[in-house]
């Protein structure tokens, strides 16, 4: 009798923990539905400048770079082609590099000077403040009231400034953000799925927040700031890994308006190797939680509408979802051994949670693709299971970033390696910049083995409804772990990174 009661008690405990985690994930799923609603409701609301400048203002173009051997020439060439009066354009190459990038940048600077450009090459011997520190150093010498920031892998169209600058005729506008495009979207399965991830954020979330009057953030690049807005918001801070998100919230709390232009696209390069992608995602995840800890209390103290506070809370805490997802992964197996539940439990618990979590994610990315590519979106439907699987496989990597931020563990700003890749293959053994090695792939491999067992166990117990979802978890962790390890194997001489390499 005692053993039966103990088993029942343990079953109840596992079920309560499992459902609690799912309820937390469901809250973020419901928020996705809210974003979809706001996007569909406001997507046709025009973003138009209040007037046009009678005389174009001076603009400073800031190019923060660090060891960008493969893309620095392409970046500077794209800036050279900007259709804007030379006498109103200042170019700052903010270089923290420690390799041949310095020599290339200096040579390109000399060419620009010969062509009559107002260009300045600023090299720092230390990386104090990392990218934020470089931007702050450039601000001290910036001549323009408007500052156009471009990361090294971005390639703006010549008319981008003229398309955006008139929005600053509204004196309350502090920043104008363009949408990222993807130079190498079709390079591999990994880049195709990354593009789908980013399209969801850059098209749905940013448009929904901007057009509905909520706070949204500068994406770190491909945006123009009003210099006085940066100064009024206390400048660039170095205490988080997402200086762009940090400054965005501080500026908007000061009353500045931001404008998002989803139809003005500035293409950039997606990471082509899993380790580079993981490094980027870890930095973004950790930095967002650092910013959450720093600014969310200030948001709630500020005199802001309740809807803005609620959206800011969902935005700044959203990456806690990865921690919940890892907890869910751990709880799936014990829950499968818990007491069987009846039809009423499935109707009242399982079904609503399924629609709040899995369906919301799939619909979110589906709507993003339908509006990103209205004529051919259906051709990418086959990517949806891979997108969901990759999101799952990345959960350990991103949960680590969340935990590090919560525990105040400091780390450097780790750049994402860029190789100047669009469609051509690259010899991995000869690349200069390699992502940092870690033991994380082995943890991901253990999760893959764990879910392999979960698939077998569910099949043995006749829980066939669970098998497709468990296979998605198994596939996600297996793919992420394998791609993390295979890059190092390729560098050791086992092949090339090619377009066909998924």
TrEMBL record:
UniProt subcellular location: Golgi apparatus membrane
Pfam families: Glyco_tranf_2_3
Species, as recorded: Terrimicrobium sacchariphilum
Keyword field contains Transmembrane helix: yes
GO biological process: cell wall organization
Protein name, entry field: Glycosyltransferase
Transmembrane segments: 12-40, 319-337, 343-367, 439-459, 465-482
Membrane topology: Multi-pass membrane protein
UniProt keyword list: Cell wall biogenesis/degradation, Glycosyltransferase, Golgi apparatus, Membrane, Transferase, Transmembrane, Transmembrane helix
Coiled-coil regions listed: none
One GO molecular-function entry: glycosyltransferase activity
